[in-house]
Amino acid sequence: MSDGPGLSDYRRREQSVTLEQLEQPLDVPGVESSAELLTLNFGPHHPATHGVLRLLVTLQGEIVRDIKPVIGYVHTGIEKTAEDKSYWKVIPVVERMDYLAYYFNAMAYVGAVETLLEAEVPKRAQYLRIIHLELNRIASHLIWLGTSALDLGAVSIFLYCLRERDIVLDLFEMSSGQRMHTRYFQVGGVIEDIPPGFERKVREFCKVMPARADEYGAILNANEIVLQRLRGTCPLDAETLLSLGVTGPLLRAAGNPWDLRKAAPYSSYEDFDFKIPVGTVGDNYDRFAVRLAEIYESVKIVEQALDGLPEGPYITEDRKVALPPRHELATSMEALIHHFKLVTEGFRVPPGEIYNPIESPRGELACFVRSDGSSKPARVHMRDPSFVNLQALSHMVKGSYIADMIATVAMLDPILGGIDR
Amino acid sequence: MPDATGLELLAQELGDSVLETVYFRNRATLEIDPETVCSVLRGLRDRGFTLLASVHGVDYHPSEPRLGVHYELLDMARVDRVTVKLRVGLDAPEVDSVTPEWPTADHQEREIYDMFGVVFRGHPNLRRILMPEDYEGHPQRRDFPVGGEPVIFTRDERKWLEARE
Amino acid sequence: MAAGGIDVEVKRERLGSPVEPEGLRVRDLNAHQLLRGADIEGPNRPAHLEGEELERYVEERVLTTTLDSAVAWARGNSFFPLAFGLACCAMEQFHTAGPRMDIARFGFEAFRASPRQADLIILAGRVSIKMAPIIRRLYDQMLEPKWAISMGACCSSMGVFNNYALVPADKFMPIDVHVPGCPPRPESLMHGILKLRDLVLADPPEGWRTRYAAVGTEEAP
Amino acid sequence: MLRTYLPAIVFLVLGGAVGGTFAVLNSVIGPRRAAPHKQDPYECGLPSEVKRGMRFGISFYLIAMLFILFDIEVVFLYPIAVEFRAYGSFALFETIVFIVLLFVAFVYVWRRGALTWK
Question: Are D and B neighbours with ≥3 CB pairs closer than 8 A?
């Protein structure tokens, strides 16, 4: 497959882009000749970019003078694929966008379709959804903590976090049969009720997790190197963050307690009491501390949701939307017709547009669904928090050292699947 | 959410640039004239909608004018959301860019340009963001083929090899 | 189905040689008995051996290996994978290197950051057309001899997203092992790597198709 | 004379031999396949744009010189430390003077701000 004399079209494409085109006149005070500046690819394949993010970094010695994120290296055309699938089949496609918070993608999409359909989600399904959402938030924060500590040199924390995350993935496998991209959320509720032993295992995990989080806190907060690298580096105040549209732990670290679970509660979040960790200065240490504290809050929510888990159906009774249970198919003809109609063509959604925001581990994740009355969505767009938060990177990093840039990219927690969609 | 009457009041205050107001599933949407997008957003910002949450494009293929751009605005004090929608034809897909006033729209407008071909006048760095720089065509338009190719399974490997010679 | 219809009638005959008798386990047992001299003649045979039994005994006990099978053994057991996560499969790749699945048991946990020190590239995730030339360049810059594992359906056959944006890895680089799954479990990635190790050790276990020379089991064209 | 140096010589010969064989073994056994971009500099998977004539900033050289200065100081301490008991108190004072002198240099460099990166 080597390209031989004529370049294959992939190779020609990439080499056609040279840095001069991307170069912009650099108005850096005090640097007249650009001989001292070095433009470097902090490129798609790099251990510290948390995915295939390419940062065009202009360096003056150790100091970062200008940074330009170049993305699109894992663009999969998910929004285009979602447009020619029926509503029911879009869920697995949408889940694969932000591959650390897959339950949140499904929740945003399913919430939007339920609002369009005005389908009523039973209370038990809402509680089950919250349990899985908060467990997924913990799992996402664990991968963030592991890889960020890896970037700062604390390699063993990576293995501890994976040990905890394995337990959470076992819970997902127990309730839905698959570790990742479980397609557990359906329009109108969840696809299956939780098996009998699930509640006991989740309580065990909820007992173990705070103690483990204390261990991580003890190791990292006592480590002078980590503190030196995080405290006081690359701060950004709340106003600039708001003008850049940044939401989530980055905004809360700067002091603005904006969290959609409290501000606009959805899926019965108002039944639980939990606190929102908020930082003060807005530097890397606050971002780290806010996310670490969120793990404890998520554990509290899961425990309260388990205590208050109501009885009742786990999916909406409306047969137009939800599949009838298997045993009913043998007896009632009507269930068979519903089943056949749903499986072949899928349910139709009244025409309209909806923008459904929820709180994902990285910020406001919203799904815009436009339906034209057929059984396929006309447009599915995900407002991904990492995509918007990435714009704040250049404001944070200009003028700081390379080591601080690596710590800032780690604390930004960008997920390239969500950015490139 | 501004309820139906609040939406009508908002529309009158913003004057004739609002073409239509839609109140659907208690969410407010203002459809505006594309030329006045900057002034409408500035007016809404004065009324408390300080955070521009999202800018995204939609292709209303069968109906004209075809390319739509949506602006989702959020008022954090009153926890209030409003959507500003504008429609642009395929012949003159030109809209004023809001990036100078709202820096968050930078990458999102580049994505709409990359995926739908709507040119934003005044954008500091309008270039493709997701597709390769020298890619032809705007993939998320509805008439752009979904693409994809048949997968080479072991059973028809021979067929592919002959096809390649 | 195409014109051929489903002619999937499975014919299975056992191959000529059943499991190769000279397997290691069997040779060990022979040597043991030779030493005790039990099976030669009569139980009271003196233990020492000479002449022809001595050669057989020595040949049984000493594992004679040619140089390249020794080199293949060294290469197979010391992969240095390139830390290269593209998308969701990278998360499962972390877990393969994590404490439970623990790739370190087989010695492959040294994930190298630069292609200059890696001889196995695991494509964990979906390959977009913008990323394909970069991966090809990385593959060119890797150490010789090099192998490539395409982990997950997106990389092997564009999986769920068969659209304008993705490229199957086979189109631009030679792939040795395809690991199915979306994302594949850590265990199945581990199985893929071990299968590659057997491939490198040049004695891959015969798949059931080759062992039974099964014909007609491919799907219809 | 040879008797006392024998372990050192054996050590050197063995180290050289093992190191040499592994280096040579690689070029003897390893396959050689030319690939288009194999010798290009590796820059995260992209063609590197760094021109040859790129000059490093002056602060890099400053830090390098300071490091060499204080590293040599430590190297001088090793031989003294080996036979410290035999030299008695004379060596102790000598070393202290040596360290104090260099410490003065260190404080000067520190106060002048050469250690902070500009």
Answer: no
CB contact under 8 A, D48 and A61: no
Structure tokens at A52: 């295939």
Calpha distance A35→A29 (Å, rounded): 15
Cβ distance A10 to C98 less than 8 Å, yes or no, reads no
**Is the CB of residue C95 less than 8 Å from the CB of residue C124?**
no
> Does residue C171 contact residue C79 with C-beta atoms inside 8 Å?
no
CA-CA distance, A146 to A114, in Å (whole number)? Answer: 36
From A159, A179, A181, residue closest to C185, measured CB to CB = A179
According to DSSP, the β-strands at B67-75 and B51-59 are antiparallel
* DSSP run (H or E) holding B68: strand B67-75
CB C128 within 8 A of CB A72: yes
Helix (H) or strand (E) holding A217: helix A198-222
Statement: residue A269 has pLDDT above 50: yes
**How far does the CA of residue C36 sit from the closest CA of chain B (Å)?**
53
B18 falls in which pLDDT band (50, 70, 90)? confident
Q: Considering only CA atoms, which of A168, B151, B139, A143 is closest in space to residue C150?
A: B151
Of A36, A45, A60, the CB nearest to D44: A45
Q: Distance (Å, rounded) from C-alpha C77 to C-alpha C107?
A: 7
Q: What is the pLDDT of residues A60-115, one digit of tens each?
A: 888 899 999 999 999 999 999 999 899 989 999 999 999 999 999 999 999 999 99
Who's near D70: CB < 8 A, 6+ residues apart? Answer: D102, D106
Beta bridge partners of A63: A60, A401
**C-alpha closest to that of A194 among A169, A224, A173, A222:** A173
Strand partners, B75: B80
pLDDT at position A219 over 90: yes
Structure tokens at A418: 């969500």
When scoring A52, A164, A380 by the number of chain C Cβ atoms within 10 A, the one with the most, hence best to mutate, is A52
Are B151 and C163 within 8 A, CB to CB? no
E strand map for A144-237: 185-186, 189-190
Chain B residues within an 8 Å CB radius of A379? 58-59
Q: Please give chain C's pLDDT, 221 residues, in tens.
A: 333 444 445 555 544 444 454 566 666 666 666 666 555 454 444 456 667 777 777 776 666 677 778 888 888 999 999 988 899 999 999 999 999 988 999 989 889 989 999 999 999 999 999 999 999 999 999 988 889 999 999 988 888 888 999 988 888 888 888 899 999 999 999 999 998 998 888 776 666 666 666 665 554 43
| Complex ipTM | 0.86
pLDDT at A353 over 90: yes
Quote the CA–CA distance of A113 and A85 in Å, as a whole number.
Answer: 14
The DSSP bridge pattern shows strands A54-60 and A37-42 to be antiparallel
Q: Residue A233 corresponds to which amino acid? A: T
- How far is C29 from C60, CA to CA, in rounded Å? 9
Which residue from A minimizes the CA distance to D116?
A: A62
Return the DSSP state at D46: B
Q: Which two tokens stand for residue B29?
A: 């949407």
Helix (H, G, I), strand (E, B) or coil at C133: helix
Which of A145, A165, A175 is CA-nearest to residue A157? A145
Q: Angle, nearest 10°, between helix axes C88-96 and A155-176?
A: 110
Q: Does residue B75 contact residue B81 with C-beta atoms inside 8 Å? A: yes
Quick check: helix, strand or coil at residue B121?
strand
Which residue type occupies A401?
A: Y
Report the alpha-carbon distance of residue D26 to residue C200 in Å, rounded. Answer: 17
Contact B24 A81 (CB under 8 A): no
- The rounded distance, in Å, linking the Cα atoms of D72 and D68 is 6
- The residue type of A83 is E
